[in-house]
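In this supplementary section we document a worked example of the pipeline. Step one takes a protein sequence of length 184 as its only input; no multiple sequence alignment statistics are reported here. Step two produces a three-dimensional model, which step three serialises into structure tokens for compact storage. The input and output of this example are shown verbatim.
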Amino acid sequence: MSFIISQVFGTVAACIIVSSFQFKDVRRLLIMQTVSSVLFALQFVFLGAYAGCVCNVIGALLRIAVYFRDKNGALPGEKRGTAPLASVWFWGFCLAFAVVGAITYDGIVSLIPPVAMIIFTYAIWNADAVFIRKMNFFICSPMWLTYNICSLAVAGILTEVFNMLSVAVSWYRFFAGKNRKKAE
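The serialised model returned by step three reads:
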């Protein structure tokens, strides 16, 4: 029964995160993704995949922090234009994910979510859409896909496949179309 409940939470989370991409407003997108992270956390609780659960909770907090950045991308106590490696907030989130990895360690697979989220934190802190897409496509999504497969998180598997396809389509729309026009 807990497997079915986990898949219900995962399916609702997947629907929310997929619909979040339809918002132009970054703040609304972050709210939707925060809700999705909480639901994915519940999915992992019912699957007994605690590294994924706690990383999604911290990931929700990360999105909330990014939501409250000012128009210059700074959080309270940061100077304008603070680089990720100079941000106390950045290091706080990375430390939190590393602690999750240590506390929930249950073999190499349990280290995938914390490592993926540290990389995601670096990507999102840069606030460069192209860089975020690259990091998600080549590193974060494949890592989460692997973890979801190992955890039997069906909705998570489908979400990561969708995320990777979405990034590929965006690259085609934004870059291949431009290169094709230049060649003509």
